[in-house]
Amino acid sequence: MIPQSFISDLLNRVDIVDVVGRYVQLKKGGANYMGLCPFHNEKSPSFTVSPTKQFYHCFGCGAHGTSIGFMIEYSGMGFVDAVKDLAQGVGMVVPEQDDKIPPAQRAQMQAQSMALSDAMSHAAEYYKSQLRQAPAAIAYLKGRGLTGEIAARFALGYAPGGWDNLRAVFPDYDAVALVEAGLVIDRVDEEGNRHKRYDRFRERVMFPIRNTKGQVIAFGGRIMEQGEPKYLNSPETPLFSKGHELYGLFEARQAIRDAGYVLVTEGYMDVVALAQMGFPQAVATLGTACTTTHVQKLLRQTDTVIFSFDGDKAGRRAAQRALEACLPQVSDNKTIKFLFLPAEHDPDSYIREFGAAGFERQVAEAMPLSQFLLRVVSAEHDLGEPEGRARVQFEAKPLLQAMAPSALRLQIVRGLATMTQSSPGEIEALYELSKPVAEVRRAPPRSSRQQPVGLELQIVRHLVAHPALALQIDEAGMAAFASFGPEPHERLAQLIGAACALGPQATFAALAQHLKEQGGEYDAIIGEIAAEPESDVDAVRVYLVSAIRQIKMDALKAELAQLFASGLSSTEIGVRYREITAMQDQLLREAEADLSAR
């Protein structure tokens, strides 16, 4: 858990114009900067970046957020990675609560990571330079229909023959970092003594694997002639975990947004060939089954994921593993489909035989996840027999239990019920599904609290826009908010507490980021503030002081009315009456003083 104080400090140090400007071409337009929104297709700019609010907002699609939010949405990073990336750019070190690593050890780990990154970067440049001098490799790529432009886009390279070519790249060929990065291999005897070091990749076309920041973290090497393995991948390293990374995601990010979907394939060459043929929105898993982490990364980029598999048995098995990885991430606003090519084809060969239009038809006809799930569980069982129907229900149980309650799960349950001559309620009861959907007629509201209205809404809006003003609200003001009712009082107390925790330097961006992490209750208000011109903080301060003073006055009047209706003796009433009138007089004097000062 990263401390909120660090998040606030980070957002105060980074400049959102610089952060967004690395990815979006911005032009000054009045107080803000304008550009084409990277989150939806548009021809005229509706995307604004405010240097005063340190916030971005799109008037077209409604996207908005801080520098952290932009890095998450644009680059597909997780929250922690986005914070670390921004912090590195301004020389800050992210503190981690409950972190027991001593400073010296942490510095050593950071130095190791830097050494590995440098090694991979130098190796990538070397392999790329070697491709220019390798006629056989160039001929191979041309034979696969690739142009020099597409090879340059994916930074393809070539590892020449020979056992220690990297010795010419790295003066210290014996450096530990080369082994840790997976670039070289140490041959050791049974006693653990190293006898020889040699390059891992030899005589292979090289595919650099990049993370979401564009840094080379691993390689895939493809042999050009016959031999095994056909593909040789980097091993797991401190930089690279194949269960977390996707080949081509860095290069495909904008194309995915433009197309509205991502196409997941099984191989490097599929990605490069599809990009060559007009489908740059393709990515690939890295010699491993699709994982839940892969799916999470993809769904950060787009609402539609289409998996493409070969039509043979191996492709079907891979598709079923992908299905299982997807189920925990399924939601009603996301679409996941499965595309199966004829058994004799992969995407590369299919698109070359039938063209881009033919492949586009295959994509359009991809099978929805719901249909594929029912097909998987029923494929090998006789639905005409009770035993066969029971077996289908047995096969489907773990898959449905992996899904969160949703309308889509209900649709699958209904399909399964029809298929097995059962009712949806019986299926949900049999599977002991959490929060059965078949019995629920209406989804609960996103928030059980009523939305703020009237004066409360104005106070909330002003405090979100200028959170430092919350420090000026005293206990009497907080108590007076009780007149709005229990829920508004609780909401204002929580909002003021969050704003005060950020301190006197609190900003709209810092509080907005904090509120977003807590849920979407304030998302609409934040969007409205982001879309409006910057309000004058002094005018807002005067308004808040006046509004809270009036709330106090109204609360005192209400208490007086209750006091006289209480039935207490005149002596008992008199004590509290004098206290209330004294407070009223004080509030009037404060109001007159404020008027005189203006």
From TrEMBL:
<dbReference type="InterPro" id="IPR030846">
    <property type="entry name" value="DnaG_bac"/>
</dbReference>
<protein>
    <recommendedName>
        <fullName>DNA primase</fullName>
        <ecNumber>2.7.7.101</ecNumber>
    </recommendedName>
</protein>
<dbReference type="InterPro" id="IPR034151">
    <property type="entry name" value="TOPRIM_DnaG_bac"/>
</dbReference>
<dbReference type="GO" id="GO:0003899">
    <property type="term" value="F:DNA-directed RNA polymerase activity"/>
</dbReference>
<feature type="zinc finger region" description="CHC2-type">
    <location>
        <begin position="37"/>
        <end position="61"/>
    </location>
</feature>
<dbReference type="GO" id="GO:0008270">
    <property type="term" value="F:zinc ion binding"/>
</dbReference>
<keyword id="KW-0460">Magnesium</keyword>
<keyword id="KW-0548">Nucleotidyltransferase</keyword>
<dbReference type="InterPro" id="IPR016136">
    <property type="entry name" value="DNA_helicase_N/primase_C"/>
</dbReference>
<dbReference type="InterPro" id="IPR013173">
    <property type="entry name" value="DNA_primase_DnaG_DnaB-bd_dom"/>
</dbReference>
<dbReference type="InterPro" id="IPR036977">
    <property type="entry name" value="DNA_primase_Znf_CHC2"/>
</dbReference>
<dbReference type="InterPro" id="IPR050219">
    <property type="entry name" value="DnaG_primase"/>
</dbReference>
<dbReference type="Pfam" id="PF10410">
    <property type="entry name" value="DnaB_bind"/>
</dbReference>
<dbReference type="GO" id="GO:1990077">
    <property type="term" value="C:primosome complex"/>
</dbReference>
<keyword id="KW-0240">DNA-directed RNA polymerase</keyword>
<dbReference type="Pfam" id="PF13155">
    <property type="entry name" value="Toprim_2"/>
</dbReference>
<keyword id="KW-0804">Transcription</keyword>
<dbReference type="InterPro" id="IPR013264">
    <property type="entry name" value="DNAG_N"/>
</dbReference>
<feature type="domain" description="Toprim">
    <location>
        <begin position="260"/>
        <end position="342"/>
    </location>
</feature>
<dbReference type="Pfam" id="PF08275">
    <property type="entry name" value="DNAG_N"/>
</dbReference>
<dbReference type="GO" id="GO:0003677">
    <property type="term" value="F:DNA binding"/>
</dbReference>
<keyword id="KW-0863">Zinc-finger</keyword>
<dbReference type="InterPro" id="IPR037068">
    <property type="entry name" value="DNA_primase_core_N_sf"/>
</dbReference>
<keyword id="KW-0639">Primosome</keyword>
<dbReference type="GO" id="GO:0006269">
    <property type="term" value="P:DNA replication, synthesis of primer"/>
</dbReference>
<dbReference type="InterPro" id="IPR006295">
    <property type="entry name" value="DNA_primase_DnaG"/>
</dbReference>
<dbReference type="Pfam" id="PF01807">
    <property type="entry name" value="Zn_ribbon_DnaG"/>
</dbReference>
<dbReference type="InterPro" id="IPR006171">
    <property type="entry name" value="TOPRIM_dom"/>
</dbReference>
<dbReference type="GO" id="GO:0005737">
    <property type="term" value="C:cytoplasm"/>
</dbReference>
<keyword id="KW-0808">Transferase</keyword>
<dbReference type="GO" id="GO:0000428">
    <property type="term" value="C:DNA-directed RNA polymerase complex"/>
</dbReference>
<comment type="function">
    <text>RNA polymerase that catalyzes the synthesis of short RNA molecules used as primers for DNA polymerase during DNA replication.</text>
</comment>
<comment type="similarity">
    <text>Belongs to the DnaG primase family.</text>
</comment>
<keyword id="KW-0238">DNA-binding</keyword>
<keyword id="KW-0479">Metal-binding</keyword>
<dbReference type="Pfam" id="PF08278">
    <property type="entry name" value="DnaG_DnaB_bind"/>
</dbReference>
<dbReference type="InterPro" id="IPR019475">
    <property type="entry name" value="DNA_primase_DnaB-bd"/>
</dbReference>
<keyword id="KW-0235">DNA replication</keyword>
<dbReference type="InterPro" id="IPR002694">
    <property type="entry name" value="Znf_CHC2"/>
</dbReference>
<comment type="subunit">
    <text>Monomer. Interacts with DnaB.</text>
</comment>
<keyword id="KW-0862">Zinc</keyword>
